[in-house]
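STRUCTURE:
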């Protein structure tokens, strides 16, 4: 056992830094300085580039990084505004999809998903090739009363030609509930189909869902908050909450915004940079975990 009080000042600082570092997630690299508000992470099946974006109020651009964190490409989207881009996903052909459905005030009526073709990802500019819009049939007021602020979302993934969206609960009576919706990968305006719900935990800052993904083999789904990851397995069909769940404490409280699978048992995670904390890409190895079921 190290007696902190007897350490020289320099070693004391190092010891405290190590004590605050998570033993669950591993830092891979620091995100570039201009990506302080990284809100997503995605790796397509056709490339090892790591894609990210920034959310509302930022320019409509996608950023490709290599495994050292160097920027390999900045892709400007020419025909879509960044209203509130929140997440990225991809299909089996390597096309990227942007989730423009951030809805902090629960008043938006222009929720959208944009497709960017795989062939355009190495260009400097690209036009969205398909736009999918949707709405939540359960929402009838814009905005609803604060106790019904349950129609924000920051998380989605592609699976079997549908998108699965996980809401971020901003209710004044926060209970950790996220709602799973399905939207078809088809042009047009669609009523999102409610599939299921799941209750994370009861503190907004630790328990509001900020990202999600499904493993390449379709056997694992993860949702993420600033503090935890939940892993879902043995589910039935597209009700990803119907099987077993495991809660993992990341041992790190920063504003985590992006998560994606790399293979079936490893995850990338990103967080926003706030003052001197965050702004990293991390790796989480699911084979080494112990968590609460």
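SEQUENCE:
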């Amino acid at each position: 056992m190290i007696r902190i009080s007897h350490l020289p000042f320099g070693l004391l600082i190092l010891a405290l830094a190590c004590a605050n570092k998570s033993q669950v997630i591993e830092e891979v690299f620091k995100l570039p300085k201009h990506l302080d508000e990284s809100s997503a992470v995605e790796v397509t099946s056709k490339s090892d580039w790591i894609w990210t974006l920034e959310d509302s109020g930022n320019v409509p651009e996608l950023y490709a990084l290599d495994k050292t964190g160097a920027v390999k490409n900045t892709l400007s989207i020419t025909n879509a505004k960044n209203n509130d881009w929140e997440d990225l996903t991809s299909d089996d052909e390597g096309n990227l999809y942007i989730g423009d459905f951030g809805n902090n005030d629960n008043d938006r009526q222009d929720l959208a998903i944009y497709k960017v073709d795989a062939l355009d990802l190495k260009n400097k500019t690209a036009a969205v090739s398909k736009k999918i819009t949707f709405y939540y049939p359960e929402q009838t007021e814009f905005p609803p009363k604060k106790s019904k602020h349950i129609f924000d979302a920051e998380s989605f993934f592609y699976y079997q030609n549908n998108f699965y969206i996980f809401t971020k609960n901003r209710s004044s009576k926060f209970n950790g509930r996220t709602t799973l919706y399905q939207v078809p990968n088809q042009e047009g305006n669609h009523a999102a189909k409610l599939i299921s719900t799941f209750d994370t935990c009861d503190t907004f800052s630790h328990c509001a869902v900020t990202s999600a993904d499904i493993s390449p083999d379709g056997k694992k789904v993860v949702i993420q908050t600033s503090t935890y990851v939940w892993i879902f397995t043995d589910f039935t069909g597209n009700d990803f909450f119907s099987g077993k769940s495991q809660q993992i404490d990341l041992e790190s409280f920063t504003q985590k915004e992006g998560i994606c699978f790399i293979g079936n048992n490893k995850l990338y995670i990103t967080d926003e940079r706030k003052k001197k904390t965050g702004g990293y890409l991390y790796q989480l190895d699911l084979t080494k975990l112990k968590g609460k079921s």
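REMARK: Residues 24-288 form a domain with the Neuraminidase fold (CATH 2.120.10.30).
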